[in-house]
Description:
The protein has 400 residues and is an alpha+beta fold. It has helices spanning 59-73, 79-84, 139-152, 166-174, 203-213, 267-285, 310-322, 375-380, 391-398; strands at 2-9, 17-20, 22-23, 36-37, 40-45, 48-53, 94-102, 107-115, 123-132, 157-160, 182-185, 217-229, 232-244, 249-252, 296-302, 327-334, 349-354, 359-362. It is built from nine helices and 18 strands.
Amino acid sequence: MIITRIKIDNLYSFQNTEIDFTYSRKKTNSTIDGEFLDFAPKFYFKKVCIISGTNASGKTALGKVLCYFLNFITGKNNTISDIVSGVFDKERNALLELDFVTLSDQKIHRVKIEVASNSVNSLKTLFYVATKINGNDSAEKAKQKLKDIEEKQKGGTYINSEQTSLDEVYEQLINKNIQQNWYFLVSENETGSSSGKINEFSVDLLGKLLKIFDPSVSKVNPIFKEVEVNGKIIRLNEGCEVIFANGDKAKIDDDCQVMTDPNRFSKGTFEILQVAGFINRIMNSSDSKVPDEYQIGTFFLDEKMAYSNSHLEQAVVTLIISKLGRYAQFFYTTHNYDILDLNLPVHSFLFMKKDMHNTEIIHPDHTFQKNDRKLLNYVKNDYFHTIPDMEILDELIFGE
Length: 400
């Protein structure tokens, strides 16, 4: 699937918040290729979304909401309780709405749910609508078609739990051919959801990344085990062994988890282990030997290079973008403003800021239409009012 829009109300710090992952005009000399549908060339979507903001501005919460909703619409169990856990005002229902495109049937879909935190049956309503994307449709026109079907309740596919049962709407939804390849790395202890988990980790990729982040890494060797299958002995990858210049060793499993001596790695090097697995999943989904419509995936990386050098962070993000499949999307959150120096279209950036309770979304491409603006300079000069309020710290520094 390709995510084109999300609307969130009363979840975490999002109050009637809408984020559009499409854009209206073709960008000349863009550094990102293929941000359109082959069967509808005027339908432009964002393949890359760099989400920048201060601490507690809502970046991680957005990743959680997306992950939980993707779990829900593809039939994973117990995901409504995950969504309910983020309800902000317990006295009113939360609303969540997602638009996405499926390539197999060339349709745009909209799913809406309403959940309550103070009810035995948390899922209150479920709504689903879909329509065909015609060859001349823009993203805006396709979105308007969904709205028309919703209002007139005819044309395309329309089914609402207020008119039929929740189970019938849900069955109609999960029976759709919705691509399920995604991988989220969100927060310290939560890895989100991934389907099509890798069977074998690229030891070569991990070795190269580790040596960049830690020059004391001497080599990385694969670890195999032999098993008998149908009378034949085959070798299965079990991860790898990292060998340091002084002879120290650490074992990494095939999911990039440190099995022995995790303290041997610095914070930045430890993070890059997970990032390496993330990159490997992207590379596995972007095999040039398969048709474009199968080079798909939704990838969300949440502040996993917070301890990295700025130049290394920029380089790794550039690497990730270069490995994206034809219809893959990459979401990356950071509070390091140096990432804004990347040579990306202005529509690839999104800013978040929060007042006492609510998150505000800022689309810089709504202000600047040209891609030659230096976003970093505008952010440093607090043009978007996204720099943290330092008044209390000033009082602590200069007060008696």
